[in-house]
Design goal:
GO molecular function: monooxygenase activity
EC number: 1.14.13.-
Organism: Zhongshania arctica
Protein name: Flavin-containing monooxygenase
Structural class: alpha/beta
CATH architecture of the largest domain: 3-Layer(bba) Sandwich
Helix content: 25-40%
CATH class of the largest domain: Alpha Beta
Number of domains: 2
Distance between the termini: 18 Å
Strand content: 15-25%
Number of strands: 20
Shape: globular
Radius of gyration: 23 Å
CATH superfamily of the largest domain: FAD/NAD(P)-binding domain
Pfam families: Pyr_redox_3 (PF13738)
């Protein structure tokens, strides 16, 4: 065995074995478990927390909600006719995840409070060894269903350690802390900030928003779903299915057309109207108007973001540069004193933390091999990691529901595992030539997209490469992931 496990020799010999081990019980993990159960595969799920739900379990900040309509932000095989709103809130999505896991009978296979610490490939056995906080496991196949929004990031601010007040990240919201009449600084103006800032604005004494770059924010067509429509969805499942298909096609229309300037200009006009409706001060409007093409960064949705920023107790400042005690300084020299800092600075999406604990054939960390620019074949398998699959991996993000991408990926992964079982294949490893050719083609196609049009976004990694976006439609992605082709891989018989 690898020397890294020598100190655990006794544990290694008694490591619990399963054909497939899934890491994480969020959306991807739940989907993988359901489909593996249907395929009658031997599997377990290792989950670090005490509940399922993934990102929807972790994020509990005020007004946390989805920006994809609920009927599309759900499994096609588990429709929910009872959504309360067009865009579901965090609690309802978490409950949906829990209910789905219960309904499909996968809960007994989930091992809670089993956080993965390290995953290593043992070539002599053609197995993965997984070191967790609750013991050692081994398996033929591993599905890393951890998701990219896993580890919150904090900005590197001069003097941050000197701050004398309360601070926390939106992803680790302190629900026991009372913000009433506090002076609050919000750092960042991304997807979480546009939800929680309007929610807390009425209760705080003063609110200072530090934003490096204003986002494009479109109106959110969010309404309560009436009992009459819920009843229709329950009585006539086809109606809900057709509604879901219509939503999917709307997102495909966006995917196809956003690359055209004439189309994005129309959306920009709608976003500018959204600014003007909420903000009357012409100087503030200027601060909130982006100077890059709509779509270059993530497009956000809100009906109350601009109204909140226009309130008397809110001040909009440029990016923060320094902290001295409770005094914060912006890049234009303006200052404010605050009691609380809330970081709305998101996650390190282009540098997945899971890469730091995976050691493949080479014995090196996957994150070191990626060197800041993650790559995978179809966003799913990497050359150095046989029999290991990554969900929502590099270059799979596009304008659609995460559920659409996940279902397509899990179908592909289950096809790989089933074929390996039937054909007595011990290992499946990506053909480097096939992987290089596809990634080269993707990078070429991305050059002409709005995502690569020049703004600074989390789509572009530290090396200047777009390691996040899928350059084509979700339909094309689903077609590519429709069936696992052994010809794209090197295999070894059992």
């Amino acid at each position: 065995m690898n020397t890294q496990f020598s100190a655990e020799k006794d544990g290694a010999t008694t490591a619990k074995y399963h054909d497939v081990i899934i890491i994480g019980s969020g959306i991807s993990g739940i989907c993988a478990a359901i489909k593996l159960k249907e395929a009658k595969q031997d599997y377990i799920v290792l989950e670090k927390a005490t509940e399922v739900g993934g990102v929807w379990r972790e994020n509990t900040y005020p007004d946390c909600a989805c920006d994809v309509p609920s009927s599309l932000y759900s499994f096609s095989f588990a429709p929910n006719p009872n959504w309360q709103r067009v865009f579901a809130k965090q609690g309802e999505i978490k409950t949906y995840c829990q209910d789905t896991a219960e309904k499909f009978g996968i809960m007994p296979n989930i091992y809670f409070q089993h956080e993965l610490l390290e995953s290593r490939w043992e070539a002599s056995e053609n197995l993965w060894y997984l070191k967790t906080t609750a013991g050692l496991f081994k398996s033929r196949f591993v599905i890393m269903a951890c998701g990219p929004m896993h580890k919150p990031i904090y900005p590197n601010i001069e003097g941050l350690a000197s701050f004398t007040g309360k601070s926390f990240h939106s992803a680790t919201w302190d629900n026991d802390y009372d913000l009433t009449d506090k002076r609050v600084a919000v750092i960042g103006s991304g997807g979480s900030a546009i939800q929680f800032l309007p929610a807390i604005q009425p209760q705080v004494q003063a609110l200072s928003l530090f934003q490096r770059t204003p986002p494009w924010v479109l109106p959110k067509a969010d309404i309560t779903i009436s009992p009459r429509w819920k009843n229709r969805f329950r009585r006539f499942p086809m109606v809900l299915s057709l509604f879901r298909k219509a939503l999917y096609l709307q997102f495909e229309f966006l995917n196809h057309n956003l690359k055209y300037k004439s189309f994005s200009t129309k959306l920009e006009k709608a976003a500018i109207k959204n600014i003007n409706r909420g903000v009357k001060d012409p100087e503030l409007r200027k601060k909130l108007l982006p100077d890059y093409a709509l779509g270059c960064k993530r497009i956000l949705l809100s009906n109350d973001w601009y109204r909140a920023l226009g309130k008397d107790n809110v001040d909009v400042l440029p990016g923060i540069t320094k902290i001295e005690g409770n005094k914060l300084t912006a890049s234009d020299g303006s200052t404010c004193e605050v009691d609380v800092i809330i970081f709305g600075t998101g996650f390190d999406v282009s540098n997945p933390p899971i890469g730091n604990i995976i050691y493949g054939v080479s014995g090196r960390r996957l994150g070191d091999l990626w060197a800041g620019s993650p790559q995978a074949y179809l966003g799913t398998m990497t050359e150095d990691c046989p029999n290991l699959f990554i969900t929502l991996g590099p270059n799979l993000y596009t304008y659609t529901s995460a559920f659409v991408i996940i279902e397509a990926q899990i179908k592909y992964i289950c096809s790989a595992i089933t074929k390996a079982s039937k054909k007595k294949i011990a290992t499946i490893q990506v053909d480097p030539a096939a992987s290089a050719a596809l990634n080269k083609k993707m990078q070429h196609s991305l050059q002409s997209t709005v995502w690569n049009s020049g703004c600074s976004s989390y789509f572009i990694d530290k090396n200047g490469r777009n390691s996040i976006n899928w350059p084509w439609t979700a339909f094309r992605m689903r077609r590519k992931l429709n069936d696992f082709r052994l010809s794209d891989y090197h295999t070894k018989k059992a």
